[in-house]
Automatic annotation (TrEMBL):
Main location: cytoplasm
Taxonomic lineage from the root: Eukaryota, Viridiplantae, Streptophyta, Embryophyta, Tracheophyta
NCBIfam families with a match to the protein in the record: ZF_HD_prot_N (TIGR01566)
Gene Ontology biological process terms in this record: regulation of developmental process
InterPro entries: ZF_HD_homeobox_Cys/His_dimer
Protein name (Swiss-Prot/TrEMBL): Mini zinc finger protein 2
Keyword Metal-binding among record annotations: yes
Coiled coil ranges: none
UniProt GO molecular function: DNA-binding transcription factor activity; transcription cis-regulatory region binding; zinc ion binding
Keywords: Cytoplasm, Metal-binding, Zinc, Zinc-finger
PANTHER family assigned to the protein according to its UniProt record, in alphabetical order: MINI ZINC FINGER PROTEIN 2 (PTHR31948:SF162), ZINC-FINGER HOMEODOMAIN PROTEIN 2 (PTHR31948)
An example Gene Ontology CC term for this record: nucleus
Length: 93
């Protein structure tokens, strides 16, 4: 028996939308005792880049020395849309 895939497309009015994303890196989650079978984190509360954007220092935390990927990533997404109200038909002559 063959499976069929149905694709439904909706036509929606064009809207002017803008997506704003901000990324923040929180506490460090690196396990410093993984080599001995334990679990210990260093207590670093927030990622602070040790260099300017575009350099290798931008990926290293100034507080704990860990790579940025060890820090919890928090993404905030805000969608802003501009919708116009439908035209009023009672004003027609």
């Amino acid at each position: 028996m063959r499976k069929r895939q149905v694709v439904v497309r909706r036509k929606e009015p064009a809207r002017s939308t803008t997506t704003i994303r901000s990324v923040r890196y929180g506490e460090c989650q690196r396990n410093h005792a993984a080599s001995v079978g334990g679990y210990v984190v260093d207590g670093c509360r927030e990622f602070m880049a040790s260099g300017d954007e575009g350099t290798s220092g931008a990926l290293t935390c100034a507080a704990c020395g860990c790579h940025r990927n060890f820090h919890r990533k928090e993404i905030e997404t805000e969608v802003v849309s501009e919708c116009s109200s439908p035209h009023n038909s009672s004003n027609r002559t």
